[in-house]
Structure formats: structure tokens, C-alpha cells
Design brief:
Nucleotidyltransferase, domain 5; Arc Repressor Mutant, subunit A; about 20% strand; binds zinc ion; about 400 residues; five-stranded mixed sheet; 3 domains
Length: about 400
């Protein structure tokens, strides 16, 4: 039997943390943790006995004997991850290295009673865990869109999902799963995924902007997520980019989302078409026809990308982040077509930010799902996922 997880000491966690992503010798760990070599060796032995660490061959010699290396055993513990999208949801088991071990899609509709949806997620999670070969569960993480009260574990509202109001997600799921449940905003989860397993590894500051049905930003600052008082920092979709502009469903006018969300692309195209198409057009359809040079699709997409560029420049200036990742529909558009985003952003930045500015398109798949597990994994390794 493994020792209970709570028995891991801060020093054991510190040793384990150095082994994320690479094997190391005891001497390297000694240098990184500033623990004595004897202490490091004792902890490695204890971690090995718990299945968390395993020998990983030998490193390069510095003249003497080749040092023995140790590595984290990624599937020795599992985190449950859930990404609620509405419509639809996904559930996965994720190893300590942030890799998805098994995942399943779950049907979910915004008009359904939330406890019914959450029970379905829990059923799927239990089925996945039953199928897992190894690994004790260290907790569950849920990534969700919309407005939340994260300190209380409550989802306040998710876009147009009519049944989704004041849902105590953490309580309902932790009672059912008998595990601690951590909530994270889905864009913050995507930023965490970039930081742990994506192209942002090693970066201390960056933002992740998601443009899909809604538009929001995950703010990774000083090595952790800045989530604001209630967890809603970075919801840039409702920043005004055209004073007195198009009405937004939030009650304001001229919001970024009213021009640059996937939904707005479709709506604007219908509004601006001289012959209104008989059936609704999808955002993918707008992009395809815009790339073929067809009007009004070309104008609609160009304006969306221009305003997205303005919003990204504003965000970069406020936070002084050099790197901004973009996910969602722009990540699937050819470079030539989306150049408008980076050109506009750059034109609105001043040196030194302009010189260092780096806009990248996210290449992670399932970033929301992976990122839902990261706060759970970070807590296990003794590293905070959020700044507050
Ligand atoms: Zn709005």
C-alpha cells in the first residue's frame, strides 16, 4: 500500500518537482533544492518506494563514475480532468506530466439541469478510473467558461446556457466523487496547459486569448494564473472596441465579442449580405468564403481580426506581456489571412514592447482538458497554479 498522499512532505514535493519533464541525478537535485545530498537520497528512496520515482539509467560523467538518474513516473498518480463546453463536455485522466491518458466526450446541453450534466460527467470519470491500470487519484479539476465565483466553487453563468445559473459545481462533484475538486476558467486552463506542456514552457509571463463562441484571455503572470477576485480576470470579450457600435447580448454596445467571436462572424455576414442566405452560415463557412475573396465575408473577417489585434495590443500593454498565444478559430486560419491580427497589434504597440512582441497560434489539442488537471497536479507538487 502507498502512504496516504497527505504524508508527502514539502521537501519530498520539492524533490519531485525538479523531476518534471526530465530525469536528474541526486547531485543535480541537491543543487536545485539546496537540500543536502543525504536528504535528497533519502527522499528519492521514499518516493521510489511509493512508485512516484524510478531509476532512469545513467547521466554523463564529469570525470568520475556516471551518475544514476531518477525520473518521475507520470502515471503513478492520476488527476481527473473535466472540460465543460456547453454544448458538450470532455472527461480525462491525466498523468503527473500533464499528458492525457484516456479521454471521453460527454453529451451536455445548456438547457439541461446542471446536476444531471455533472452526474453524467462523474459517471464517465468513474468509468475511466475503473479502466486505469495504475495510479492513485490526487483530485479532480474542472475547466469551465462563463462567469464564476471560483473561491466558492460556483459557476454563476455560462453564456446563453439557460439552465446554468449559480451552480455549486465543486460541492456537487466533490460529494459525488469524494475527491477535492478545483475549478478553473477554461481560458486560464489553456494558458496553464501552454505553460506546462506547450510552447510556453519556461516562460514567466504571457497571455492566452481564446476566440470562439466568446472571447477571453488567460493571464499567466509571474509563473501562475492571475484570476482576479472571483476568477473572472481576463474576460476581454466585453471590452468596448467601437464606442456606440453593435449591440452585444451583455447589454453594452461595441464589445469585442460583437465583432470577433465565431458567432458574430456568422451574424454579421448574414446582416451584410445583400441577398440574405436562406440558411444560417457557420463561422467556418465565413472564414472559407472570406479566404476565397467573397464579400461581405472578407470585410467581416478583416474587421474581426483588426479588432482582435487592437484588443491583444491593449492587453499586452496593460500587463506588459511579450508573448500572446491565440487559440480558437483564428488558430485554424492560414497565416496570410490572419496576418491582420499581428499587423494591427504591432501597429498599436510602442517600443520596447513592439520589439519583443511575439504572437503565436496555439498548437495544443485539448488544452482546456489538460489545463483542468494542472491546478490539481501543481497542488500535489507543491506549486501554486494561481497567484491568489
Ligand atoms: Zn458585451
Amino acid at each position: 500500500m502507498r502512504r496516504p498522499l497527505a504524508a508527502l512532505s514539502p521537501n519530498e514535493r520539492a524533490v519531485l518537482y525538479t523531476l518534471r519533464g526530465r530525469a536528474r541525478s541526486a547531485a543535480e537535485i541537491e543543487r536545485l533544492t539546496r537540500l543536502s545530498l543525504l536528504t535528497v537520497r533519502r527522499h528519492l528512496e521514499a518516493l521510489e518506494a511509493q512508485g512516484l520515482v524510478a531509476p532512469a539509467g545513467f547521466g554523463r560523467s564529469n570525470g568520475g563514475r556516471q551518475p544514476r538518474l531518477f525520473a518521475l513516473v507520470p502515471d503513478s498518480r492520476l488527476a481527473l480532468a473535466m472540460h465543460l463546453e456547453l454544448p458538450g463536455a470532455k472527461v480525462a485522466t491525466v498523468g503527473l506530466d500533464g499528458r492525457v491518458i484516456a479521454a471521453r466526450g460527454v453529451p451536455a446541453d445548456g438547457a439541461e439541469e446542471p446536476p444531471v450534466v455533472l452526474n453524467r460527467l462523474a459517471d464517465t470519470a468513474e468509468a475511466l478510473v475503473r479502466g486505469a491500470q495504475d495510479g492513485g487519484l490526487i483530485g479532480a479539476g474542472v475547466a469551465l467558461p462563463g462567469y464564476a465565483d471560483l473561491p466558492r466553487g460556483v459557476s454563476l453563468r455560462i453564456g446563453r446556457a439557460s439552465a446554468w445559473r449559480d451552480v455549486p459545481v465543486s460541492d456537487l462533484l466533490s460529494r459525488r466523487l469524494r475527491l477535492p475538486v478545483a475549478l478553473v476558467h477554461d481560458t486560464a486552463a489553456m494558458a496553464l496547459a501552454e505553460a506546462e506542456v506547450g510552447e510556453a514552457r519556461g516562460q514567466r509571463h504571457f497571455a492566452f486569448v481564446l476566440a470562439e463562441e466568446g472571447i477571453s484571455a488567460g493571464l499567466f503572470l509571474d509563473g501562475a494564473i492571475y484570476q482576479g477576485a472571483f476568477g473572472n480576470a481576463g474576460l476581454i470579450g466585453h471590452m468596448t472596441v467601437r464606442p456606440g457600435g453593435r449591440d452585444c447580448y451583455c447589454g453594452n454596445a461595441g464589445c469585442l465579442e460583437a465583432y470577433a467571436s465565431a458567432r458574430a462572424l456568422a451574424q454579421r455576414s448574414v446582416e451584410l449580405s445583400p441577398k440574405r442566405p436562406g440558411r444560417a452560415i457557420s463561422s467556418r463557412g465565413v472564414v472559407r468564403r472570406a479566404l476565397a475573396g467573397e464579400e461581405p465575408f472578407r470585410t467581416v473577417l478583416d474587421e474581426a481580426f483588426q479588432l482582435l489585434g487592437v484588443a491583444i495590443a491593449n492587453l499586452a500593454k496593460i500587463l506588459e506581456v511579450h508573448t500572446v498565444f491565440v487559440g480558437g478559430y483564428p488558430a485554424g486560419v492560414p497565416d496570410a489571412a490572419r496576418a491582420r491580427i499581428v499587423e494591427t497589434a504591432r501597429a498599436h504597440l510602442q517600443p520596447p514592447l513592439r520589439v519583443h512582441f511575439d504572437l503565436r497560434y496555439s498548437r495544443l489539442t485539448e488544452a482546456g482538458l489538460v489545463g483542468a488537471a494542472i491546478p490539481v497536479i501543481r497542488r500535489f507538487l507543491g506549486v501554486p497554479a494561481t497567484a491568489s
